[in-house]
Amino acid sequence: MSHYEAPIREPLVLGDKSYHDITEDIAKPIEGAANKNWYIAFYISLAAMLWGFGCIFYTVGTGIGVWGLNKNIGWAWDITNFVWWVGIGHAGTLISAVLLLFRQKWRMAINRSAEAMTIFAVFQAGLFPIIHMGRPWNAYWVLPLPNQFGSLWVNFNSPLLWDVFAISTYLSVYLVFWWTGLLPDFAMIRDRAVKPFQKKIYALLSFGWSGRAKDWQRFEEVSLVLAGLATPLVLSVHTIVSMDFATSINPCWHSTIFPPYFVAGAIFSGFAMVQTLLGIMRKVTNLEDYITRMHIEYMNIVIILTGGIVAVAYATEFFIAWYTGSPYENYTYLSVGAATGPYWWAFWSLITFNIVIPQLLWIKKFRRSFIITFIISIAINIGMWFERFDIIAIVLSKGHLPSTWWRFEPTFVDVGIFIGTIGFFFVLFLLYARTFPVIAQAEVKTILKSSGEFYKKRSEQGIPTKPVIEVTSIAAINGVSNNNKNG
Amino acid sequence: MEASKVIHAFYTDDEVLLDAVKTVKADHHHIEEVFCPFPVHGLDKALGLAPTKLAITAFLRNYRFVFCNLDDKLYYD
Protein backbone atom coordinates (compact mmCIF):
# COMPACT_ATOMS: atom_id res chain seq x y z
CA MET A 1 0.00 0.00 0.00
CA SER A 2 1.60 3.26 -1.06
CA HIS A 3 -0.62 5.44 1.10
CA TYR A 4 -0.12 4.16 4.59
CA GLU A 5 0.17 5.98 7.86
CA ALA A 6 0.11 4.53 11.36
CA PRO A 7 -3.45 4.60 12.75
CA ILE A 8 -2.13 6.24 15.94
CA ARG A 9 -1.64 9.51 14.02
CA GLU A 10 -4.65 11.78 14.00
CA PRO A 11 -6.06 12.77 10.61
CA LEU A 12 -4.88 16.08 9.13
CA VAL A 13 -7.86 16.49 6.78
CA LEU A 14 -11.21 16.09 8.51
CA GLY A 15 -14.53 15.02 7.04
CA ASP A 16 -15.58 12.90 4.12
CA LYS A 17 -13.43 14.70 1.53
CA SER A 18 -12.72 13.73 -2.04
CA TYR A 19 -10.03 15.37 -4.15
CA HIS A 20 -12.65 17.55 -5.78
CA ASP A 21 -14.01 18.69 -2.40
CA ILE A 22 -10.55 20.05 -1.55
CA THR A 23 -10.54 22.04 -4.80
CA GLU A 24 -14.01 23.41 -4.06
CA ASP A 25 -13.19 24.35 -0.46
CA ILE A 26 -10.00 26.19 -1.33
CA ALA A 27 -11.39 27.95 -4.41
CA LYS A 28 -14.50 29.14 -2.56
CA PRO A 29 -13.04 32.21 -0.80
CA ILE A 30 -11.58 33.38 -4.13
CA GLU A 31 -14.60 32.71 -6.31
CA GLY A 32 -17.32 33.74 -3.88
CA ALA A 33 -18.18 37.20 -2.56
CA ALA A 34 -16.58 38.51 0.62
CA ASN A 35 -18.76 38.47 3.71
CA LYS A 36 -19.55 41.38 5.99
CA ASN A 37 -16.85 40.47 8.52
CA TRP A 38 -14.20 40.63 5.82
CA TYR A 39 -15.29 44.15 4.84
CA ILE A 40 -15.38 45.36 8.46
CA ALA A 41 -11.87 43.98 9.10
CA PHE A 42 -10.62 45.39 5.80
CA TYR A 43 -11.90 48.92 6.38
CA ILE A 44 -10.54 49.06 9.95
CA SER A 45 -7.13 47.89 8.68
CA LEU A 46 -7.26 50.34 5.79
CA ALA A 47 -8.04 53.24 8.14
CA ALA A 48 -5.13 52.24 10.40
CA MET A 49 -2.85 51.96 7.38
CA LEU A 50 -3.80 55.41 6.08
CA TRP A 51 -3.30 56.93 9.53
CA GLY A 52 0.17 55.32 9.62
CA PHE A 53 1.00 56.64 6.15
CA GLY A 54 -0.07 60.11 7.30
CA CYS A 55 2.33 59.84 10.24
CA ILE A 56 5.10 58.66 7.91
CA PHE A 57 4.59 61.65 5.60
CA TYR A 58 4.57 63.96 8.62
CA THR A 59 7.85 62.42 9.85
CA VAL A 60 9.56 62.67 6.47
CA GLY A 61 8.24 66.18 5.85
CA THR A 62 9.13 67.59 9.27
CA GLY A 63 11.99 65.43 10.49
CA ILE A 64 12.75 62.69 12.99
CA GLY A 65 12.26 65.30 15.75
CA VAL A 66 8.55 64.50 15.72
CA TRP A 67 9.39 61.16 17.32
CA GLY A 68 10.02 60.82 21.05
CA LEU A 69 13.76 60.21 20.61
CA ASN A 70 16.33 62.20 22.55
CA LYS A 71 20.11 62.49 22.74
CA ASN A 72 20.34 59.34 24.85
CA ILE A 73 17.78 57.14 23.17
CA GLY A 74 18.57 57.50 19.48
CA TRP A 75 16.36 54.64 18.45
CA ALA A 76 13.39 53.27 20.30
CA TRP A 77 10.03 52.45 18.73
CA ASP A 78 11.37 52.20 15.20
CA ILE A 79 13.98 49.53 16.01
CA THR A 80 11.60 47.80 18.44
CA ASN A 81 9.02 47.53 15.69
CA PHE A 82 11.63 46.51 13.12
CA VAL A 83 12.88 43.61 15.26
CA TRP A 84 9.33 42.65 16.20
CA TRP A 85 8.22 42.41 12.57
CA VAL A 86 11.33 40.57 11.42
CA GLY A 87 10.79 38.10 14.25
CA ILE A 88 7.21 37.52 13.21
CA GLY A 89 8.45 36.65 9.76
CA HIS A 90 10.47 33.79 11.16
CA ALA A 91 7.78 31.16 11.54
CA GLY A 92 7.36 31.08 7.77
CA THR A 93 10.94 29.94 7.31
CA LEU A 94 10.69 27.26 9.92
CA ILE A 95 7.36 25.89 8.70
CA SER A 96 8.10 25.84 5.01
CA ALA A 97 11.82 25.10 4.90
CA VAL A 98 12.80 23.17 8.01
CA LEU A 99 9.57 21.20 8.29
CA LEU A 100 9.77 20.36 4.58
CA LEU A 101 13.24 18.90 5.04
CA PHE A 102 12.00 16.94 8.07
CA ARG A 103 9.02 15.69 6.00
CA GLN A 104 6.43 16.99 8.45
CA LYS A 105 3.11 16.62 6.67
CA TRP A 106 1.16 18.89 8.97
CA ARG A 107 2.99 21.89 7.56
CA MET A 108 1.06 21.57 4.27
CA ALA A 109 -2.12 23.19 5.57
CA ILE A 110 -0.34 26.16 7.08
CA ASN A 111 2.82 26.79 5.04
CA ARG A 112 1.18 29.01 2.41
CA SER A 113 -0.22 31.45 4.97
CA ALA A 114 2.94 31.35 7.09
CA GLU A 115 4.99 32.29 4.01
CA ALA A 116 2.55 35.08 3.10
CA MET A 117 2.80 36.32 6.67
CA THR A 118 6.60 36.22 6.44
CA ILE A 119 6.65 38.33 3.31
CA PHE A 120 4.13 40.87 4.57
CA ALA A 121 5.92 41.12 7.93
CA VAL A 122 9.27 41.72 6.22
CA PHE A 123 7.65 44.58 4.26
CA GLN A 124 6.62 46.21 7.55
CA ALA A 125 10.04 45.59 9.09
CA GLY A 126 11.80 47.16 6.12
CA LEU A 127 9.77 50.34 6.43
CA PHE A 128 11.25 51.31 9.81
CA PRO A 129 14.97 51.62 9.00
CA ILE A 130 14.04 53.40 5.76
CA ILE A 131 11.88 55.98 7.55
CA HIS A 132 14.49 56.37 10.28
CA MET A 133 16.97 57.47 7.64
CA GLY A 134 15.02 60.71 7.48
CA ARG A 135 15.75 60.96 3.78
CA PRO A 136 14.17 57.77 2.44
CA TRP A 137 14.82 58.80 -1.17
CA ASN A 138 18.49 58.10 -0.44
CA ALA A 139 17.75 54.59 0.83
CA TYR A 140 19.67 53.01 -2.05
CA TRP A 141 22.88 54.35 -0.49
CA VAL A 142 22.83 51.36 1.84
CA LEU A 143 23.63 49.16 -1.15
CA PRO A 144 27.28 48.83 -2.22
CA LEU A 145 26.74 50.50 -5.60
CA PRO A 146 29.31 52.29 -7.74
CA ASN A 147 28.80 56.00 -7.16
CA GLN A 148 30.01 59.48 -8.04
CA PHE A 149 31.27 60.30 -4.55
CA GLY A 150 34.83 59.17 -5.13
CA SER A 151 35.82 56.46 -2.72
CA LEU A 152 32.61 56.62 -0.68
CA TRP A 153 31.61 53.06 0.08
CA VAL A 154 29.26 51.36 2.52
CA ASN A 155 30.66 50.41 5.92
CA PHE A 156 31.17 46.67 5.79
CA ASN A 157 31.96 46.64 9.53
CA SER A 158 28.46 47.76 10.42
CA PRO A 159 25.83 45.18 11.39
CA LEU A 160 23.26 47.56 9.93
CA LEU A 161 24.73 46.82 6.51
CA TRP A 162 24.64 43.07 7.22
CA ASP A 163 20.98 43.63 8.01
CA VAL A 164 20.44 45.03 4.54
CA PHE A 165 21.93 41.90 3.00
CA ALA A 166 20.17 39.53 5.39
CA ILE A 167 16.73 41.06 5.00
CA SER A 168 16.91 41.45 1.23
CA THR A 169 18.14 37.85 0.79
CA TYR A 170 15.38 36.67 3.06
CA LEU A 171 12.71 38.56 1.15
CA SER A 172 13.89 37.45 -2.29
CA VAL A 173 14.31 33.77 -1.36
CA TYR A 174 10.89 33.82 0.26
CA LEU A 175 9.15 35.45 -2.69
CA VAL A 176 10.56 32.74 -4.99
CA PHE A 177 9.70 29.95 -2.55
CA TRP A 178 6.17 31.23 -2.04
CA TRP A 179 5.50 31.78 -5.71
CA THR A 180 6.86 28.39 -6.78
CA GLY A 181 4.47 26.74 -4.37
CA LEU A 182 1.63 28.91 -5.65
CA LEU A 183 2.04 28.01 -9.34
CA PRO A 184 -0.06 24.81 -9.41
CA ASP A 185 -2.70 26.42 -7.20
CA PHE A 186 -2.95 29.52 -9.38
CA ALA A 187 -3.29 27.14 -12.35
CA MET A 188 -6.18 25.44 -10.58
CA ILE A 189 -7.97 28.78 -10.15
CA ARG A 190 -7.18 29.65 -13.78
CA ASP A 191 -8.71 26.42 -15.06
CA ARG A 192 -11.85 27.00 -13.03
CA ALA A 193 -12.24 30.71 -13.78
CA VAL A 194 -15.30 31.69 -15.80
CA LYS A 195 -14.70 35.41 -16.24
CA PRO A 196 -12.20 36.09 -19.05
CA PHE A 197 -10.39 38.81 -17.08
CA GLN A 198 -9.95 36.56 -14.06
CA LYS A 199 -8.72 33.77 -16.29
CA LYS A 200 -6.17 36.08 -17.87
CA ILE A 201 -4.84 37.28 -14.51
CA TYR A 202 -4.47 33.78 -13.09
CA ALA A 203 -2.94 32.58 -16.35
CA LEU A 204 -0.26 35.26 -15.95
CA LEU A 205 0.26 34.45 -12.28
CA SER A 206 0.60 30.70 -12.90
CA PHE A 207 3.38 31.18 -15.48
CA GLY A 208 1.73 28.72 -17.88
CA TRP A 209 1.67 25.80 -15.47
CA SER A 210 0.26 22.69 -17.16
CA GLY A 211 0.64 19.98 -14.52
CA ARG A 212 2.50 17.55 -16.77
CA ALA A 213 4.72 14.93 -15.18
CA LYS A 214 7.90 16.88 -15.92
CA ASP A 215 6.46 20.04 -14.31
CA TRP A 216 5.84 18.12 -11.10
CA GLN A 217 9.28 16.56 -11.16
CA ARG A 218 10.88 20.01 -11.45
CA PHE A 219 8.47 21.45 -8.89
CA GLU A 220 9.46 18.96 -6.23
CA GLU A 221 13.16 19.37 -6.95
CA VAL A 222 12.99 23.17 -6.81
CA SER A 223 11.06 23.04 -3.53
CA LEU A 224 13.79 20.89 -2.03
CA VAL A 225 16.63 23.08 -3.32
CA LEU A 226 14.93 26.25 -2.06
CA ALA A 227 14.22 24.63 1.31
CA GLY A 228 17.91 23.79 1.56
CA LEU A 229 18.84 27.37 0.71
CA ALA A 230 16.28 28.83 3.09
CA THR A 231 17.19 26.70 6.11
CA PRO A 232 20.37 28.65 6.96
CA LEU A 233 18.22 31.80 6.76
CA VAL A 234 16.25 30.61 9.80
CA LEU A 235 19.42 31.08 11.81
CA SER A 236 21.18 33.84 9.91
CA VAL A 237 18.56 36.57 9.66
CA HIS A 238 17.76 37.01 13.30
CA THR A 239 21.36 36.35 14.29
CA ILE A 240 22.28 39.40 12.25
CA VAL A 241 19.39 41.39 13.69
CA SER A 242 20.69 40.53 17.17
CA MET A 243 24.16 41.72 16.10
CA ASP A 244 22.73 45.24 15.72
CA PHE A 245 22.92 45.09 19.50
CA ALA A 246 25.50 42.40 20.25
CA THR A 247 28.35 43.99 18.26
CA SER A 248 27.90 47.34 20.02
CA ILE A 249 29.99 48.08 23.11
CA ASN A 250 26.98 48.83 25.28
CA PRO A 251 26.95 46.61 28.39
CA CYS A 252 23.95 44.24 28.41
CA TRP A 253 23.76 44.40 24.62
CA HIS A 254 27.34 43.24 24.15
CA SER A 255 26.41 39.67 24.85
CA THR A 256 27.12 36.35 23.18
CA ILE A 257 23.75 34.98 24.24
CA PHE A 258 21.95 37.37 21.92
CA PRO A 259 22.07 35.44 18.60
CA PRO A 260 20.61 32.10 19.82
CA TYR A 261 18.22 33.90 22.12
CA PHE A 262 16.94 36.18 19.36
CA VAL A 263 16.48 33.27 16.95
CA ALA A 264 14.45 31.31 19.51
CA GLY A 265 12.46 34.44 20.34
CA ALA A 266 11.78 35.07 16.67
CA ILE A 267 10.40 31.58 16.12
CA PHE A 268 8.40 31.93 19.34
CA SER A 269 6.78 35.19 18.21
CA GLY A 270 6.41 34.00 14.61
CA PHE A 271 4.43 30.95 15.64
CA ALA A 272 2.31 33.09 17.94
CA MET A 273 1.42 35.33 14.99
CA VAL A 274 0.64 32.28 12.81
CA GLN A 275 -1.74 31.09 15.55
CA THR A 276 -3.40 34.52 15.69
CA LEU A 277 -3.84 34.74 11.92
CA LEU A 278 -4.95 31.16 11.37
CA GLY A 279 -7.34 31.38 14.29
CA ILE A 280 -9.13 34.14 12.39
CA MET A 281 -8.60 32.76 8.89
CA ARG A 282 -9.96 29.25 9.43
CA LYS A 283 -13.22 30.80 10.65
CA VAL A 284 -13.52 33.50 7.98
CA THR A 285 -12.73 31.20 5.04
CA ASN A 286 -14.47 28.08 6.44
CA LEU A 287 -11.31 25.98 6.38
CA GLU A 288 -11.86 24.29 9.74
CA ASP A 289 -11.42 20.84 8.15
CA TYR A 290 -7.89 21.65 6.99
CA ILE A 291 -6.54 23.72 9.88
CA THR A 292 -7.42 21.35 12.69
CA ARG A 293 -6.82 20.98 16.41
CA MET A 294 -3.85 18.81 15.50
CA HIS A 295 -2.19 21.69 13.64
CA ILE A 296 -2.86 24.08 16.50
CA GLU A 297 -1.40 21.61 18.99
CA TYR A 298 1.76 20.98 16.95
CA MET A 299 2.39 24.71 16.69
CA ASN A 300 1.77 25.11 20.41
CA ILE A 301 4.42 22.49 21.10
CA VAL A 302 6.92 24.54 19.08
CA ILE A 303 5.82 27.59 21.08
CA ILE A 304 6.48 25.77 24.39
CA LEU A 305 9.94 24.74 23.22
CA THR A 306 11.07 28.13 21.87
CA GLY A 307 9.35 29.93 24.74
CA GLY A 308 11.31 27.72 27.12
CA ILE A 309 14.58 28.67 25.42
CA VAL A 310 13.64 32.34 25.75
CA ALA A 311 12.76 31.90 29.44
CA VAL A 312 16.11 30.23 30.15
CA ALA A 313 17.87 33.09 28.35
CA TYR A 314 16.03 35.63 30.52
CA ALA A 315 16.97 33.74 33.66
CA THR A 316 20.62 33.61 32.57
CA GLU A 317 20.70 37.34 31.79
CA PHE A 318 19.07 38.15 35.11
CA PHE A 319 21.44 35.96 37.08
CA ILE A 320 24.60 37.16 35.31
CA ALA A 321 23.55 40.82 35.70
CA TRP A 322 23.24 40.27 39.45
CA TYR A 323 26.36 38.09 39.67
CA THR A 324 28.66 40.72 38.14
CA GLY A 325 28.04 42.90 41.18
CA SER A 326 28.33 45.92 38.89
CA PRO A 327 25.91 48.68 39.86
CA TYR A 328 25.49 49.55 36.19
CA GLU A 329 24.08 46.09 35.45
CA ASN A 330 21.31 46.81 37.91
CA TYR A 331 19.79 49.11 35.30
CA THR A 332 19.78 46.60 32.44
CA TYR A 333 16.48 45.29 31.21
CA LEU A 334 16.51 42.09 33.26
CA SER A 335 17.47 43.17 36.74
CA VAL A 336 15.99 44.16 40.10
CA GLY A 337 16.49 47.80 39.10
CA ALA A 338 14.36 47.32 35.98
CA ALA A 339 11.67 45.47 37.91
CA THR A 340 11.29 48.23 40.46
CA GLY A 341 12.35 51.28 38.43
CA PRO A 342 10.34 53.69 36.30
CA TYR A 343 9.86 51.05 33.60
CA TRP A 344 8.50 48.42 36.01
CA TRP A 345 5.36 48.06 33.89
CA ALA A 346 7.40 47.17 30.79
CA PHE A 347 9.47 44.66 32.78
CA TRP A 348 6.44 42.93 34.28
CA SER A 349 4.58 42.91 30.94
CA LEU A 350 7.52 41.04 29.48
CA ILE A 351 7.62 38.49 32.30
CA THR A 352 3.86 37.97 32.41
CA PHE A 353 3.12 37.77 28.69
CA ASN A 354 6.25 35.94 27.60
CA ILE A 355 7.05 33.56 30.43
CA VAL A 356 4.05 33.09 32.73
CA ILE A 357 1.09 32.95 30.31
CA PRO A 358 2.65 30.56 27.71
CA GLN A 359 3.20 27.97 30.50
CA LEU A 360 -0.55 27.29 30.30
CA LEU A 361 0.20 25.41 27.09
CA TRP A 362 1.68 22.55 29.10
CA ILE A 363 -1.92 21.54 29.78
CA LYS A 364 -3.17 19.43 26.90
CA LYS A 365 -6.72 20.77 27.11
CA PHE A 366 -5.50 24.35 26.65
CA ARG A 367 -3.06 23.37 23.91
CA ARG A 368 -5.93 21.91 21.88
CA SER A 369 -8.39 24.73 22.51
CA PHE A 370 -8.80 27.26 19.72
CA ILE A 371 -9.97 30.09 21.97
CA ILE A 372 -7.24 29.68 24.59
CA THR A 373 -4.58 29.29 21.91
CA PHE A 374 -5.80 32.49 20.28
CA ILE A 375 -5.68 34.45 23.56
CA ILE A 376 -2.23 33.09 24.46
CA SER A 377 -0.92 33.89 20.99
CA ILE A 378 -1.97 37.51 21.36
CA ALA A 379 -0.32 37.62 24.80
CA ILE A 380 2.93 36.33 23.27
CA ASN A 381 2.76 38.95 20.50
CA ILE A 382 2.50 41.65 23.15
CA GLY A 383 5.20 40.06 25.29
CA MET A 384 7.66 39.82 22.42
CA TRP A 385 7.07 43.46 21.56
CA PHE A 386 7.89 44.38 25.17
CA GLU A 387 11.02 42.26 25.05
CA ARG A 388 12.47 44.43 22.28
CA PHE A 389 11.16 47.62 23.88
CA ASP A 390 12.81 46.67 27.19
CA ILE A 391 16.12 45.79 25.57
CA ILE A 392 16.21 49.20 23.91
CA ALA A 393 14.39 51.73 26.05
CA ILE A 394 15.32 50.46 29.53
CA VAL A 395 18.98 49.89 28.73
CA LEU A 396 19.44 53.23 26.96
CA SER A 397 17.50 55.20 29.56
CA LYS A 398 20.28 54.80 32.15
CA GLY A 399 23.75 55.74 30.93
CA HIS A 400 26.96 55.61 32.97
CA LEU A 401 26.49 59.20 34.15
CA PRO A 402 23.36 60.34 35.97
CA SER A 403 23.30 63.37 33.66
CA THR A 404 22.53 60.99 30.77
CA TRP A 405 19.52 59.45 32.50
CA TRP A 406 16.72 60.19 30.19
CA ARG A 407 13.45 58.39 29.58
CA PHE A 408 11.75 57.69 26.30
CA GLU A 409 8.21 59.01 25.80
CA PRO A 410 6.57 58.00 22.54
CA THR A 411 4.71 60.70 20.63
CA PHE A 412 1.50 60.18 18.69
CA VAL A 413 3.63 59.83 15.55
CA ASP A 414 5.56 56.88 17.01
CA VAL A 415 2.32 55.17 17.97
CA GLY A 416 0.67 56.12 14.67
CA ILE A 417 3.38 54.57 12.51
CA PHE A 418 3.29 51.35 14.53
CA ILE A 419 -0.49 51.12 14.25
CA GLY A 420 -0.14 51.95 10.57
CA THR A 421 2.14 48.97 9.96
CA ILE A 422 -0.29 46.66 11.75
CA GLY A 423 -3.03 48.02 9.49
CA PHE A 424 -0.87 47.64 6.38
CA PHE A 425 -0.03 44.06 7.36
CA PHE A 426 -3.68 43.14 7.77
CA VAL A 427 -4.68 44.93 4.55
CA LEU A 428 -2.16 42.78 2.66
CA PHE A 429 -3.20 39.62 4.49
CA LEU A 430 -6.91 40.20 3.94
CA LEU A 431 -6.39 40.89 0.23
CA TYR A 432 -4.26 37.76 0.02
CA ALA A 433 -6.96 35.67 1.69
CA ARG A 434 -9.45 36.75 -1.01
CA THR A 435 -7.27 36.36 -4.09
CA PHE A 436 -4.70 33.64 -3.40
CA PRO A 437 -5.32 29.97 -2.66
CA VAL A 438 -4.61 30.09 1.08
CA ILE A 439 -3.85 26.38 1.41
CA ALA A 440 -1.40 24.51 -0.79
CA GLN A 441 -4.16 22.34 -2.26
CA ALA A 442 -1.87 20.29 -4.53
CA GLU A 443 0.23 19.27 -1.54
CA VAL A 444 -2.77 18.58 0.70
CA LYS A 445 -4.14 16.27 -2.01
CA THR A 446 -0.99 14.14 -1.84
CA ILE A 447 -1.63 13.38 1.84
CA LEU A 448 -5.39 12.94 1.57
CA LYS A 449 -5.21 9.15 1.31
CA SER A 450 -2.65 8.75 4.07
CA SER A 451 -3.83 11.45 6.49
CA GLY A 452 -7.44 12.17 5.51
CA GLU A 453 -10.03 11.12 8.08
CA PHE A 454 -12.18 9.31 5.51
CA TYR A 455 -9.37 7.21 4.05
CA LYS A 456 -7.80 6.54 7.44
CA LYS A 457 -11.06 5.03 8.69
CA ARG A 458 -11.33 2.90 5.57
CA SER A 459 -7.81 1.57 5.84
CA GLU A 460 -8.42 0.70 9.50
CA GLN A 461 -11.37 -1.39 8.34
CA GLY A 462 -9.11 -3.03 5.79
CA ILE A 463 -10.63 -1.38 2.70
CA PRO A 464 -7.84 -0.54 0.24
CA THR A 465 -7.42 3.12 -0.82
CA LYS A 466 -7.25 2.09 -4.44
CA PRO A 467 -10.67 1.96 -6.15
CA VAL A 468 -11.67 -1.15 -8.10
CA ILE A 469 -12.64 0.67 -11.33
CA GLU A 470 -9.72 0.69 -13.71
CA VAL A 471 -10.43 3.53 -16.16
CA THR A 472 -13.22 6.00 -15.48
CA SER A 473 -13.55 7.31 -19.00
CA ILE A 474 -11.64 7.46 -22.20
CA ALA A 475 -12.08 11.01 -23.33
CA ALA A 476 -11.16 10.80 -26.99
CA ILE A 477 -9.66 8.36 -29.38
CA ASN A 478 -7.74 9.70 -32.35
CA GLY A 479 -9.04 13.15 -31.63
CA VAL A 480 -8.79 16.28 -29.57
CA SER A 481 -8.68 15.72 -25.85
CA ASN A 482 -10.59 17.74 -23.35
CA ASN A 483 -8.52 20.40 -21.69
CA ASN A 484 -9.26 19.56 -18.09
CA LYS A 485 -5.85 19.33 -16.47
CA ASN A 486 -6.27 20.85 -13.07
CA GLY A 487 -9.19 20.40 -10.79
CA MET B 1 0.69 -0.69 -39.13
CA GLU B 2 -1.55 0.61 -36.41
CA ALA B 3 1.23 2.67 -34.83
CA SER B 4 -0.54 6.03 -35.16
CA LYS B 5 -3.40 5.24 -32.81
CA VAL B 6 -3.74 7.84 -30.02
CA ILE B 7 -5.61 7.16 -26.80
CA HIS B 8 -6.53 9.81 -24.23
CA ALA B 9 -7.44 8.33 -20.89
CA PHE B 10 -8.91 10.07 -17.88
CA TYR B 11 -8.22 8.73 -14.39
CA THR B 12 -9.71 9.73 -11.07
CA ASP B 13 -7.18 8.02 -8.82
CA ASP B 14 -3.43 8.33 -8.49
CA GLU B 15 -2.79 4.66 -7.68
CA VAL B 16 -4.83 3.47 -10.67
CA LEU B 17 -2.99 5.96 -12.88
CA LEU B 18 0.41 4.76 -11.67
CA ASP B 19 -0.50 1.11 -12.27
CA ALA B 20 -1.78 1.97 -15.73
CA VAL B 21 1.44 3.81 -16.59
CA LYS B 22 3.48 0.80 -15.49
CA THR B 23 1.31 -1.60 -17.53
CA VAL B 24 1.42 0.55 -20.66
CA LYS B 25 5.19 0.99 -20.33
CA ALA B 26 5.64 -2.78 -19.83
CA ASP B 27 3.81 -3.32 -23.13
CA HIS B 28 6.28 -0.92 -24.83
CA HIS B 29 3.74 1.73 -25.81
CA HIS B 30 4.76 5.36 -26.02
CA ILE B 31 3.26 7.69 -23.41
CA GLU B 32 3.23 11.22 -24.73
CA GLU B 33 2.29 13.06 -21.56
CA VAL B 34 0.62 12.66 -18.19
CA PHE B 35 -1.14 15.62 -16.60
CA CYS B 36 -2.08 15.58 -12.93
CA PRO B 37 -3.56 18.08 -10.50
CA PHE B 38 -1.08 17.09 -7.78
CA PRO B 39 2.31 15.36 -7.67
CA VAL B 40 2.12 11.57 -7.91
CA HIS B 41 5.21 10.10 -6.29
CA GLY B 42 7.08 7.70 -8.51
CA LEU B 43 5.35 8.85 -11.69
CA ASP B 44 8.51 10.31 -13.21
CA LYS B 45 10.38 7.05 -12.64
CA ALA B 46 7.49 4.98 -14.01
CA LEU B 47 7.42 7.18 -17.12
CA GLY B 48 11.17 6.89 -17.49
CA LEU B 49 11.81 10.64 -17.20
CA ALA B 50 15.46 11.48 -16.77
CA PRO B 51 16.22 12.77 -13.27
CA THR B 52 16.55 16.55 -13.18
CA LYS B 53 19.97 18.16 -12.81
CA LEU B 54 18.51 21.30 -11.22
CA ALA B 55 19.97 20.71 -7.76
CA ILE B 56 23.52 20.10 -8.95
CA THR B 57 23.26 23.00 -11.42
CA ALA B 58 22.13 25.33 -8.65
CA PHE B 59 25.10 24.24 -6.57
CA LEU B 60 27.68 24.56 -9.35
CA ARG B 61 26.35 27.91 -10.53
CA ASN B 62 26.63 29.21 -7.01
CA TYR B 63 30.18 27.92 -6.75
CA ARG B 64 31.11 29.59 -10.02
CA PHE B 65 29.45 32.83 -8.97
CA VAL B 66 31.22 32.98 -5.64
CA PHE B 67 34.68 31.90 -6.70
CA CYS B 68 35.01 32.85 -10.35
CA ASN B 69 33.05 36.11 -10.58
CA LEU B 70 34.78 37.59 -7.59
CA ASP B 71 38.07 36.56 -9.11
CA ASP B 72 37.19 38.31 -12.40
CA LYS B 73 36.21 41.37 -10.41
CA LEU B 74 39.64 41.59 -8.80
CA TYR B 75 41.39 41.61 -12.18
CA TYR B 76 38.95 44.20 -13.52
CA ASP B 77 39.59 46.74 -10.80
Question: Any descriptors?
Answer:
heterodimer, A: mainly alpha, 17 helices, about 65% helix, globular, B: mainly alpha, about 55% helix
Quick summary of this structure?
Chain A is mainly alpha-helical and 487 residues long. Chain A has helices at 19-31, 36-62, 77-88, 90-101, 111-132, 159-192, 196-205, 213-246, 258-284, 293-323, 336-340, 344-356, 364-367, 370-397, 412-435, 441-451, 453-460, and one strand spanning 473-477.
List the helices and strands and how they pair.
The complex is a heterodimer of chains A (about 475) and B (about 80).
Chain A: H1 19-31, H2 36-62, H3 77-88, H4 90-101, H5 111-132, H6 159-192, H7 196-205, H8 213-246, H9 258-284, H10 293-323, H11 336-340, H12 344-356, H13 364-367, H14 370-397, H15 412-435, H16 441-451, H17 453-460, E1 473-477
Chain B: E1 7-10, H1 14-26, H2 43-47, H3 54-76
